[in-house]
């Protein structure tokens, strides 16, 4: 997703987070995956929960997201709801969710199911203290509302390997001894995978990521590689905007800038 643990809330912004939202799908596929409804329905009741922004170990943790999408003059805005850390998105209730039904129940044109996904950083630290997050139950899955995100053009959102600016004021840390998976552009820019997706390929596991480059249709001159870290690596975007992209399998990467 979309991307950051829900107890470290995202600030609303005007660009796609890039952690989910099916960047690899064409617009027609995206809308088919989302489901649509013109019917009016009352939203499910929401509650509010106080959560902490303290870092914790999250690598390998599973989560799912629901995006409630509205359109204004052809531009999309999404409310992002995330199961993390309330639950690990059990498969049975997740499979039982229907995007069109969710859209109707929440009185929005489209709803999108994004997941399951798995964190690859070891910890995330977000600026800010204890905050209140809205919480809602979707078909038995409790979720926090992370953010309201202005996606913009659905066509632009559908392009893989296309960086998007994200204002998330967060630090993603990969511990020494951890394996990281990286894209390198022809200009030498490095992107580190932050979350991998089992939505497009349900059989994908972290063990397969080492050789994932054999499957990817990378832009000309780009490379994919993995390595074990000798020292910790932090993708720092506290004072600067993040650059985030996805590959065609929905895996998400953040640009790494050396200090």
Structural class: mainly beta
* Rg value: 17 Å
In whole angstroms, how far apart are the ends?
26 Å
Overall 3D form: globular
Write down how many β-strands occur, each being a DSSP E stretch of 2 or more residues. Answer: 15
Sheet with most strands: 12 strands, antiparallel
Give the overall pLDDT as a whole number: 80
Number of helices: 4
β content, as a range? 35-45%
Helix-strand topology string: HEEEHHEEEEHEEEEEEEE
Which percent bin holds the helix content? under 10%
Domain count: the total is 1
Poorly predicted tracts of residues: 1-43
Describe it.
This protein has helices spanning 27-34, 91-96, 99-105, 154-157, and strands at residues 47-51, 62-72, 75-82, 110-119, 123-126, 131-138, 141-152, 164-166, 170-174, 179-184, 190-197, 223-228, 233-237, 242-246, 252-256. The protein contains 4 helices and 15 strands. The two termini are 26 Å apart. The protein has 259 residues and is mainly beta. The protein has one domain. β6 and β7 form a beta hairpin. Strands 1, 2, 3, 4, 6, 7, 8, 10, 11, 12, 14 and 15 form a 12-stranded antiparallel beta sheet that branches. The model is unreliable at 1-43 (pLDDT under 50). Helix content is 10%, strand content 39%.
List keywords for this structure.
single chain; 10% helix; mainly beta; disordered N terminus; twelve-stranded antiparallel sheet
Describe how the helices and strands are arranged:
Layout: H1 27-34, E1 47-51, E2 62-72, E3 75-82, H2 91-96, H3 99-105, E4 110-119, E5 123-126, E6 131-138, E7 141-152, H4 154-157, E8 164-166, E9 170-174, E10 179-184, E11 190-197, E12 223-228, E13 233-237, E14 242-246, E15 252-256
Antiparallel strand pairs: 1-6, 2-3, 2-4, 3-7, 4-11, 5-9, 6-7, 8-14, 9-13, 10-11, 10-12, 11-15, 14-15
């Amino acid at each position: 997703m979309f991307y950051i643990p829900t107890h470290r809330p995202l600030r609303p912004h005007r660009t796609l987070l890039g952690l989910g939202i099916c960047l690899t799908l064409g617009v027609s596929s995206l809308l088919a995956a989302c489901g649509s409804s013109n019917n009016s329905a009352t939203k499910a009741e929401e509650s509010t929960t106080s959560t902490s922004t303290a870092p914790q170990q999250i690598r390998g943790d599973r989560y799912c997201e629901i995006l409630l999408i509205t359109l204004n003059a052809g531009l999309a805005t999404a409310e992002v709801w995330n199961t993390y850390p309330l639950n690990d998105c059990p498969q049975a209730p997740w499979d039982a969710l229907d995007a069109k039904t969710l859209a109707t129940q929440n009185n929005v044109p489209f709803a999108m199911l994004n997941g399951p996904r798995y964190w690859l950083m070891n910890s995330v630290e977000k600026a800010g203290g204890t905050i209140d997050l809205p919480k809602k139950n979707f078909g038995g899955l409790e979720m926090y509302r992370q953010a309201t995100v202005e996606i913009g053009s659905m066509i632009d959102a559908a392009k893989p390997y296309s960086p998007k600016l994200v204002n998330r004021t967060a630090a993603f840390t990969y511990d020494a001894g951890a394996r990281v998976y990286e894209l390198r552009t022809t200009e030498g820019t490095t992107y580190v995978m932050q979350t991998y997706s089992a939505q497009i390929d349900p059989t994908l596991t972290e063990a397969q990521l080492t050789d994932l480059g054999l499957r990817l249709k990378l832009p000309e001159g780009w490379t994919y590689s993995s390595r074990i870290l000798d020292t910790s690596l932090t993708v720092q975007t506290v004072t600067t905007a993040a650059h985030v992209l996805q590959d065609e399998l929905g895996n998400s990467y953040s640009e790494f800038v050396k200090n």
